Amino acid sequence: MTIVANERADTVEPTARRMITPNDLIMFGAIVLFGIVGPLLFPNYTFQIAVLWLMVLFAQTWDVMGGQMGYNSLGNIFFFGAGMYICTVTQIGLFTDVGLYTSSSDGGSFLFTPDQYYIGVAVGLLFAAIGSSLLAVALGWIVFGLRGPYFAIGTLGIALGAGELVGAWEWVGGGGGIPIPVYPGSGDGKSFFYYCLCFGAAMATFVFLKWLYSTRFGLAINAIRDDEEKAEAMGVHTMRHKTVAWAISAFFLGISGGLFGNMTGFIEPLEVAFPAPTFGLFMVAMALLGGKGTIWGPVIGAILFHIVKEATWTYFLGWQWVALGVIIIVNIVFFQQGIVGWLQEKYPAWFGIEVEERPSGVKGAAE
Amino acid sequence: MSNLVEVRNVSKAFGGVIANDDISIDVPEGQITGLIGPNGSGKTTLFNSVVGYHPIDSGSIKFKGKEISKYRVQQIARLGMLRTFQQTRIYGNMNCIDNMLISVPHRKAVFFDMFKPYPNELREKAEDLLDFVGLYEKRKLNSGDLSFGQQKLLEFAMALMNEPELLLLDEPTAGINPTLINGLIDRLKRANTEFGITLFIIEHNMRVIMNMADNIYCLAHGELLAAGNPDDIQNDQSVIDAYLGAH
Amino acid sequence: MLDNLNLLVLAPFLNVQLLVDGLFIGAIFALASFGLALVWGVMNVKNLCQGEYVIMGGYFAWYMGAQGIHPMLAMPVAAVGMFAFGWVIYKMIISRVVEKDMFTSLLATFGLAIVIQQGLNLAFGPEVQVAESGYSTHTIPMLGGSITVAEIRFYSFLICCAFAAAIIGFMKMSRMGQAIRATAQDVRAAKVMGIDTEQVFAFTYALNAAVCGVAGVLISMIWVIQPFYGITHSIRSFVVVTAAGFGNFPGVIMAAFGLGVAEQFGGFIFGAEMQQVTVVGALLLVLIWRQVQMARYRQAVQ
């Protein structure tokens, strides 16, 4: 086939929004800097900053589905809890009998040697990540034929049901929960150890997603978001992309669950592992606050959300949950595009988006 | 010459309304086949049956000798049969280049292809095709900001990017500026001759379809009224009656 | 679990007992589900705080019962109170999300659910409460055993039936009912025809809250309420509406009966603590079944 080309530029430019801009590098540098300096400046808040990184991870992984692919999951917290339980059970099961360990209130008299502990955490996190991904693939068969509200409700149901089911499963401690193996070292050592892992996990997620969105995958899931029927009609492997996207979310969420379980030292199904009304909703709210469907939105949203929440939490005198709900509603109803989304609308040039120059006032009329 | 699509005795009713009644149609490979008929004669219903948007009540639809009347839309698309929409459908939040890149022929992709970047050849091909339909200047604009006619051209270019064997076009000239129609006819013909894509076109504009098509089928009230080459159809009394309302 | 199954086989009257209980509970589910179907069908809002409205209605009854007033009398109070509450919520929040995409309404009402849960928790504490109706329990000998029917369940069943009849009559006869049905079919056409759709939406949403409030009053008397129990009721409503489709009132009633019975049997076989799991299981089953059904039409569930 031959096509007669008119006069035009010889070089083929890569699409601007997939490039790494100087702004990206500055932002990323600032965040890495804070990640390193933060715990040194505020040693008392190491745990809080570690949770901040987990929040960043939450928002990013939710955005893979909700923001980039348009599949708004209310049940992503399921993979957090699944990862937490898989990691813990692996940590215990590698060296002792799980049923025996969980049936006694103090974790039995079993003591982990430092080597056993570190091996357990490493293998546990790996299993948590892979196991959560596999669960995502399996559940994908059930939920990816659903669109819109059915998908959101179905995933919410999975998260709620999982909490109850694990609560009834005695082998993993049931509703009473499991005490986590004790860190072989000082408290400061523990918080530093897990701080590094949390920070590393969040940054790894960011870098991975930044790369992922630059591949064909990123464009394909955006297409599914914009018009899934069209994508199907064009032959895009929608099911494949949806499943992989969810598995990727689940991979990182599984790791975060394993980390959070080890940080708190005790896990139980309803409040810690599958808290759909708290963490489960936070991850959505944070992504929306920052601007869903953007690479920086979830990160900025999570940082802002967590700082505001932690700073004001104690001043609400019992009303904090009500206040939080109100904030989420206001955010959703009045400021849906989020911070980055708003900036993108206002200053498209910053994001490398080209807009046709039109006399003011005519814009929109042409549609 | 073999038939790419063979529609045999297809019937489809919506409630009590019989949209297609015992329709049989052939789309020969490498040619342009037209489908005409007054409003409400069941053209788009037949299209939707072929590409898998709804089940048919009875009959058989074969594509390259394969029964596809039970397949879902994406399975059919991956066999190499593509359709454009009467109301244009593009990804409005992406720029034109991205719209083109996402339309690469997915049926040739293996699992790990999804993690690859787009090579420069594909970008070049996308730009070539945008040039072909006359949208090169607009390539970096959000496709949602284009005019309706331009979006239609973009959708056509996206379909070409997909390298389909068969392209079904639902009223390609509707809503397009009359001065641009000649250009569009020319491009459709070139898509057929140069790219070797078989075309199956619903069209209301008689001048357009008579100019392009090798074979024409005419539907009226859900039934096949006439079939033949453009000259036959133009002189067929029943077709003239149907269009003038005497039927 | 197997013991329980065995018991069901050995004692047929138990099956009848569970069936009757299920039908009585299902009638109340039908009320709340009908509200959701209405809001979903008319204004395309997926109200995820449906269960919280039910629980709020329950607290009306419980509070009045605690003041020495018979909880049955709370029904009109709850209906009016919830109607007003629904109207205010519509004007404040829902009216701003009706036009937006579906996830906005889903998430906004989810946020609202959390606000209501926490508000109730602050106001009444996290304890499980029952509104004492003071009615007695009757025993009917049957099939070699005896099934017990609490009088209150029987009354609440009658009230549900009366309420359903009233709503159907209202939708068919009254001007507002006709306007609601017209709006459900095509908002734009209704607007062009001079129907104040804004008014219709507000009324529909408020009516939904009122219906939920009545259901809640009944729930608080024959079951228990607690600030955080709402989400299960929400999911029940979604199960029923998803199974029945939102334009289908007889379907909603049948699906609600079905869910009530399924829950009673599930609770008996798997144990009472698995009740929420049973509801979620029903949700997933219904969603899978809908997908299989839609696949035959070569469509996705949306």
Short description:
The complex is a heterotrimer of chains A (367), B (247) and C (302). Chain A is mostly helical and 367 residues long.
Protein structure class of chain C: mainly alpha
Q: Whole-Å distance between the termini of chain C? A: 36 Å
The total number of structural domains of chain C is: 1
Strand order of the largest sheet of chain C: 1-2
Portion of residues in beta strands of chain B equals 25-35%
SSE layout:
The complex is a heterotrimer of chains A (367), B (247) and C (302).
Chain A: H1 22-41, H2 46-66, H3 77-93, H4 98-103, H5 114-143, H6 148-167, E1 178-179, H7 187-214, H8 216-226, H9 228-233, H10 238-264, E2 266-267, H11 269-273, H12 276-290, H13 297-312, H14 320-334, H15 338-346
Chain B: E1 3-14, E2 17-28, E3 32-36, H1 43-51, E4 58-63, E5 66-67, H2 73-78, E6 81-83, H3 96-101, H4 120-133, H5 148-161, E7 166-170, H6 178-193, E8 198-202, H7 206-212, E9 215-220, E10 223-228, H8 230-235, H9 237-244
Parallel strand pairs in B: 3-8, 3-9, 6-7, 7-8
Antiparallel strand pairs in B: 1-2, 1-4, 4-5, 9-10
Chain C: H1 2-10, H2 12-43, H3 50-66, H4 74-97, H5 102-124, E1 137-142, E2 145-150, H6 151-173, H7 175-185, H8 187-192, H9 197-222, H10 230-244, H11 249-270, H12 275-296
Antiparallel strand pairs in C: 1-2
Helix pairs in contact in C: 1-2, 2-6, 2-7, 2-9, 2-10, 2-11, 3-4, 3-5, 3-9, 3-10, 4-9, 6-7, 6-9, 7-9, 10-11, 10-12, 11-12
Please describe the structure with a list of short key phrases separated by commas or semicolons:
heterotrimer; B: about 250 residues; Rossmann fold; 2 domains; 6-stranded mixed sheet; 9 helices; globular; C: about 300 residues
Explain how this protein is built.
The complex is a heterotrimer of chains A (367), B (247) and C (302). By secondary structure, chain A is mainly alpha-helical. Chain A has helices at 22-41, 46-66, 77-93, 98-103, 114-143, 148-167, 187-214, 216-226, 228-233, 238-264, 269-273, 276-290, 297-312, 320-334, 338-346; strands at residues 178-179, 266-267. Chain A has a two-stranded antiparallel ribbon with strand order 1-2. The longest helix of chain A is centred in the middle third of the chain and has 30 residues, at 114-143. Chain A is globular and about 70 Å long. Chain B has helices at 43-51, 73-78, 96-101, 120-133, 148-161, 178-193, 206-212, 230-235, 237-244; strands at 3-14, 17-28, 32-36, 58-63, 66-67, 81-83, 166-170, 198-202, 215-220, 223-228. The longest helix of chain B has 16 residues, at 178-193. The relative contact order of chain B is 0.18. Chain C is mostly helical and 302 residues long. Chain C has a single domain (2-133, 145-275), classed as ABC transporter involved in vitamin B12 uptake, BtuC (Orthogonal Bundle). Chain C has helices spanning 2-10, 12-43, 50-66, 74-97, 102-124, 151-173, 175-185, 187-192, 197-222, 230-244, 249-270, 275-296, and strands at residues 137-142, 145-150. Chain C has a two-stranded antiparallel ribbon. In chain C, helix 11 crosses helix 12 (275-296). The B-C interface holds B 52-55, 71-73 and C 295-299.
